[in-house]
Amino acid sequence: MNWPLPMKLLTVEGMIELLIVGCGGGASDMINPQFIVGALHVGSIHDLGYNQAMHDGLEEMKKNIPNIKVLEAENVPESADAERVMENMIRQGAKLIYAQSFGYLDPALNVAKRHPDVIFEHAAGNKLAPNLGTFWSDITAYEYLMGVVAGKSTKTNKLGWVIGYPVPNILTSINAFQLGARSVNPKATTQVIVDNSWVDPAKEAEAVNALADNGVDVVTMLVDSPSTVVQTAAKRNIMSIGFHCLCVQSVAGKGWLTGIGFTWGPLFTQFAKEVMAGTWKSKNVVGNLQQGYSAIAPYGPGVSADAKQLIEQNKADLISGKLQIFKGPIKDNQGKVRINAGEVGSVDSLLNSTDWLVEGATGQTK
Question: In this predicted model, what pLDDT tens digit does every residue of 175-191 receive, in sequence order?
Answer without folding.
Answer: 999 999 999 999 999 99
